[in-house]
Amino acid sequence: MNPTMFDPIALENWYSDDENSLLLQTELEKYFQNYLPCFRSEPQRKLFQTFITGLLSPLERKSIEPVALHFSGEKYVRPMQQFFSRSPFEEQPLLDIYQELLSKQVGQAPGMLSVDDTCFVKKGKHSAGVKRQYCGRLGKTENCQSGVFLAFAGDNGYGLVDYELYLPQEWFGEDFAQLYKECHIPEEKTFSTKNEIAVRLLNQAVHSGLFQVRWIGCDAAYGNDHAFLDGLKLPEGVWYFAATNAKEQVFPEYPQMCYPETKRGRPRKHPVLSTKPVSVREIAEDSSVPWESVVLAEGAKGPILAERKYMRCYSCRKDGNRSYVKPGPEIWLYLRKYADGEVKYFVSNAPGGLAVQELDRAATLRWPIEQCFEECKSNLGMGHYECRSYQGWKRHMLFVMIAHLFTIYIREIFKKKRFH
Fold first, then answer.
1. Residue range of the domain that includes 306
2. How many domains does the chain have?
3. 3-state secondary structure (DSSP) of residue 420
4. Which end of the chain is more exposed for a tag (fewer CB within 10 A), N or C?
5. Can you give the pLDDT at residue 8?
């Protein structure tokens, strides 16, 4: 069984008997010890432990007030609010410890770092970074906040690695100056697109050395952005496996390029190509390149079957700021057809001598970031926050990630119990 294909353990099942409840509490107390040195005072430590416990609990709503009321009482609501908005502790040491623990748990076998963004629908207009923007979960434009997240998946499991709140460009203008200040967004922040944030997070994680990275994965919003792909600073032996859209163009063969002499005017700036690039959709529809049936992996519900085709080709890059194009680096084009007939397109800069089975494996490694979002939103209150500040958002997401890592520990413990 592919170890990245975990059966999710519903939180309510953890409390099914006294033995499991005691095990959960014991392990949670041990887990907390990793993080407690990051806090300056005992009240901070207690608030941290209370909130993480609340995220792991069966509470229907896992925001500040319900958690404080349920576990500590009404007089702790205000201190919990201040803990998120103004309590003097740094998130970075917590994140550093979290990443080290995640690395030991899942990052010690070759795997994939994936980047993706997810949205959180909000009703008001006063939360940091909120704007009417495209919400992938709803498939339409909605008033929401958007975060860029990084995840790792490999043979030992999966988990979120890093994150950043996306701040739309309007938030850096005069019209938002007061709101920018009220949301306590750091003055040194500058505008970055989601793709620029993603490149930064990926490069930091790859070069941290914490995770054995073989692949970089992303969806088409990132994969069809050539500046994103070319901006990745990947060490030897690390390659991207990036989704792209059907309009992406490639050169099946490297074209010859010539500069015909002109009788008048300036010499040609752009070459004439012997062959034109083709869209990846055309290759998918080309019967001379056949589809092959393959078992990509063994999942929890049986074999993961797919039809796929692959070929070596050359990427297509813009030559100047007009419609001129030129051949780029040699790449793999990997197409996957699903049972409903949908075709997904991927490009990879992996070397030509790589076995296609490695590409098949890479095709299964990007889904866990979606699984992380599903588990964190469904079970751990990822979208339940009600704080408006930039710092409050950052702290809530970090605490959710810390709680999620604990669920990974518990899954492994329960697995071992079932097999003994």
1. 239-365
2. 2
3. coil
4. C
5. 42
